[in-house]
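Today's session is about reading a structure prediction critically. Students often jump straight to the picture, but the first step is always the sequence itself: look for stretches that repeat, for charged clusters, for runs of hydrophobic residues. Only then move on to the predicted structure, which in these notes is written as discrete structure tokens rather than atom positions. Here is the chain we will use throughout the hour.
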Amino acid sequence: MNQLYPLKFKTILKEKIWGGQNLKSTLNKSIPADKKIGESWELSGVKGDISVVKNGFLAENELDELIEIYMGDLVGDWIYEQFGTEFPLLIKFIDANDVLSIQVHPDDELAKTRHNSNGKTEMWYVVDAEKDAELISGFNHEMDKDHYVKHLKNNELPQILNSEKVEAGDVFFIPAGRVHAIGAGIVLAEIQQTSDITYRIYDWSRKDSQGKERELHTEQALDAIDFKLYDSYKTDYVKEKNITSEIVRNRYFQTNILEFDQSVEKNYNQLDSFVIYMCLDGEFEIEYYESERITIKKGETVLIPAVIEHLILNPVVQSKILEVYIPEQDNGKE
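Below is the predicted structure for this chain, in token form.
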């Protein structure tokens, strides 16, 4: 069997009522000029939208087929034991040309009971934002179910939600249960559990091309919402050039950021997990198996198989990437 190598995948473009053309200008995505593209699924194990390899001898193979063949060598032994052939993360770029609906996602327990699915914990990294662009995360004062329902029925839900002005580089962790919405004029990277379950609770009285309002999931959402007030909803992190910095870590994924203008060596021999790189800016070369090389450009995402434990990142120009994997404390290597 031929050796595994860094895998690139065909992007899965999703038309959305709130989408636009900004993934082309911001991340070099190839988008039809007449389409409102809201999401570019970079890496997906969601049924019906399984990612397909586009480079090397494994081109045209689907991700779940490769996991079945290569098992732990591709995803990590512990991850294969837990998830089987289902890839555990969904990796996207999102263009909110218009405001998204206000929504919430169920946790694992509720999603399993209702949908026989994973829950959906996610995070956002803001790639680009227009001046004064805002997003919604959580509530802006103490809340309970009765007050929430009252505001919802009076069409006043936005009044009780926490809005934040954002700029490029901002990070928001969105655990299952947190009410949220991306505002207009924002392009972001989204890392999440493999799940496509969303409860839409408010949609700004928006109508689709047929003049119909989209379905709301008002009752389903009630049991999913975390009504607690939090001190802060934005994630603080420290960034240092040529040093990998952690920005979000939880049981489902760890995301780090690396901005580099010199070679950076990576050693993953203590990590029983695949690694994903999302290139947010620049262009760099991955050196692996000592003499093999692959180039990653702005807007591209690459999956590093778990069997590749050592590699070197060589910048062609100054580059910025997100590094994503399943963290060590959850894979039996504590």
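Discussion point for the tutorial: DSSP finds seven helices and 22 strands in the chain.
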